[in-house]
Design goal:
This protein is mainly alpha-helical and 289 residues long. It has helices at residues 2-5, 14-37, 46-73, 76-83, 86-96, 104-120, 136-160, 165-183, 186-190, 196-223, 226-232, 235-247, 254-271, 278-281. Helix content is 73%, strand content 0%. Helix 7 packs across helix 11. The longest helix has 28 residues, at 46-73.
């Protein structure tokens, strides 16, 4: 009888999880900014508004979407390590554009960060017997997610050098939310019939994982060049492993500990000032092309 009164909850689709966390964050941010100061608080010139929509679509939504596809077609480990090759693409881009010099410091930091992530997620299965699932379509999706993540860092740094981060964030989230409405229309979400407790979880999760995280990351992008910011973002996987060990009792293996050390070393290396003057090594903020 108790089972009839308390039916099992449907598992939350990761696609809907990605979509709702963006949408809820946008609605709350609009309520705070527009509700207290009016639409002038988020007003942007038309050209920068279009730039934010490109950033939100190609940088945020596309990255999340292809990451979701990569997990479905390969594995979480494969999707993470391919997405976190993004520091490599950012470094190549800024060097190719002449915005930074290719120094041993930056190359070693990027190499340590990518290697550290691979060790943290046990990509090669050193402590397990699970084979790496290499699906071609999944690998392409993961690679596209990494390109999108790299674009998000470079483009985000440029627009944040000109505008308040809250204006940029609200329109970036608006673009991402619009993208998800096309990919997964509202009636598909309604058809899932989630319980009130699940909707509460989705709301709280969105406040922590998107609104809080993105506002802090945008603040970092205002003050850090893209290479340094994206290498620091590699700590996301490190914290996931540490939280799982602390809260869920999962064992932290030596190979993971070594990976964490590599990631931390990469962040320390890339944040240290090089031999050249810092102003010469910083990213040049150019007008939108």
């Amino acid at each position: 009888m108790s089972a009839a009164l308390s039916p099992a909850l449907h598992p939350i689709d990761p696609l809907i999880l990605s979509q709702t966390r963006t949408t809820f964050s946008l609605l709350v941010l609009l309520l705070i900014l527009v509700g207290s100061q009016g639409w002038q608080r988020i007003k942007l010139p038309a050209r920068d508004l279009a730039y934010c929509f490109v950033l939100g679509t190609l940088g945020v939504a596309v990255s999340n979407y292809f990451y979701y596809v990569a997990i479905q077609r390969t594995s979480v480990a494969t999707a993470i390590i391919v997405q976190y090759t993004a520091p490599v693409w950012v470094l190549f881009y800024v060097v190719a554009r002449g915005q930074q010099k290719l120094t041993p410091q930056k190359v070693s930091a990027v190499a340590l960060a990518v290697t550290g992530i691979a060790l943290v997620i046990d990509l090669l299965g050193a402590r397990s017997h699970s084979a790496l699932h290499l699906d071609p379509y999944g690998l392409i999706a993961a690679l596209l997610a990494s390109f999108s993540f790299a674009f998000y860092n470079v483009a985000g740094h440029r627009i944040l050098a000109r505008h308040d981060r809250w204006r940029v964030l609200v329109w970036t989230l608006a673009a991402a939310a619009a993208f998800w409405l096309v990919v997964n229309p509202p009636w598909k979400i309604a058809a899932a019939h989630y319980a009130p407790a699940q909707w509460l979880f989705l709301f709280v999760f969105s406040m922590i994982s998107v609104l809080g995280a993105f506002s802090l990351y945008f603040l970092g992008l205002q003050h850090l060049e893209p290479t340094r910011a994206i290498i620091a973002s590699c700590l996301e996987t490190v914290f996931s492993i540490l939280l799982a060990a602390l809260l869920l009792g999962e064992v932290l293996h030596p190979i993971q500990t070594l990976g964490i050390v590599f990631v931390l070393a990469a962040i320390v290396i890339v944040q240290r000032p090089g031999r050249s003057v810092a102003s010469k090594d910083s990213v040049v903020v150019e007008p939108i092309e």
